[in-house]
Design goal:
Layout: E1 2-6, E2 9-13, H1 15-20, E3 24-28, H2 30-36, H3 39-48, E4 56-59, E5 64-71, E6 79-87, E7 90-94, H4 99-109, H5 118-130, H6 133-152, H7 159-189, H8 201-263, H9 278-302
Parallel strand pairs: 3-7
Antiparallel strand pairs: 1-2, 1-3, 4-5, 5-6, 6-7
């Protein structure tokens, strides 16, 4: 598919007209691209398949070659990857996912800004990749906040599993934004002078926006760590409560164990063994000891 950009509009065209026009965008599938290009370009495409897990931009003698790897939201194993070439006034995508096609259809459906060109389209396309990411990061923050509230209410379940999923998602977004920042800065550097000086500044704006998203992701990472520390503290408090109860029980029954051990010696000369009221006396003594211990514990807890 070939698109031409002229008179502030972008519309589909033929290959012959696309090559004649000053500004144009082309979209190929990987199979169509391998049939259409020369051996050198085909070799680069083969090399790119091993790097579609990264967002990067490489400079060559007469073109720029890049790959974009876009992680799906909430789906770790479902990601989008495609390659692109940047020539002078031309932009070529190799995509089998349909993402680029959808973006092209959105652009061609509306009226473009005055002086629209390939640089402006690339800027708009890159922005479309991150336009809803602020809302997505806000959703992650809400999830972390809910987990924090559940911890304080002692209603959280499967905390470690859920927090691990959130931390993995945050790390994926952080790496993605870091790579996008490098890609935007490389476009801004404009080493091959493919972009006009008046339009190249837009890539700096894109890089700054991605940097802010990266900073927001770092904040979420730190927030997740703080919530995990709160959870560990809550676990420690619960363990202390359990140990407190065990200590109280042990303290109460320790003197009772002493009495039981003392009268369990069964010496012949122990007068209580043959005393009629010996058994009730031991019961009463044990009750008094338990009552005194409970009174002391209650007094200590209230003071």
């Amino acid at each position: 598919m070939y698109y031409k950009i002229e008179k502030d509009r972008m519309e589909e065209t033929t290959m012959e007209e696309w090559e004649k026009k000053a500004d144009g965008v082309a979209l190929f599938t990987s199979a169509d691209w391998e049939q259409a290009v020369q051996i050198r370009a085909s070799y680069l495409l083969e090399q790119s398949r091993d790097h579609l897990r990264f967002c990067k931009l490489e400079s060559y003698a007469d073109f720029l070659f890049g790959t974009l790897h876009i992680p799906h939201k909430r789906h770790e194993k479902q990601n989008v990857g495609f390659a692109f070439y940047i020539l002078e006034n031309k932009l070529i995508f190799i995509d089998d996912t349909g993402l680029v096609k959808n973006s092209l259809e959105k652009v061609t459906a509306g009226k473009l800004r005055k002086g629209y060109n390939v640089e402006r389209f690339l800027y708009d396309f890159l922005l479309s990749l991150i336009e809803e990411d602020v809302l997505y990061l806000a959703e992650i923050e809400k999830d972390i906040t809910k987990m924090e509230e559940a911890i304080l209410a002692r209603e959280v379940e499967d905390f470690n599993y859920r927090m691990l999923g959130l931390k993995k998602e945050i790390s994926r977004r952080y790496r993605y934004y870091s790579q996008l920042t490098d890609l935007g800065e490389s476009l801004f550097d404009n080493e091959m002078d493919f972009f006009g000086k008046d339009d190249v500044a837009t890539f700096r704006i894109f890089a700054d926006r991605v940097t802010r998203l990266q900073s927001e992701t770092q904040v979420l990472r730190e927030y997740a760590m703080q919530v995990q520390e709160v959870y560990q503290s809550e676990i420690g408090i619960r363990q202390n409560d359990v140990m407190k109860v065990l200590t109280m029980v042990t303290t109460i029954f320790l003197p009772l164990s002493l009495i039981a051990g003392w009268y369990g010696m069964n010496f012949v000369q122990m007068p209580e063994l043959h005393w009629t009221y010996g058994y009730p006396m031991v019961i009463a003594l044990s009750g008094v000891i338990v009552s005194v211990c409970l009174w002391i514990f209650k007094k200590k807890m209230n003071s």
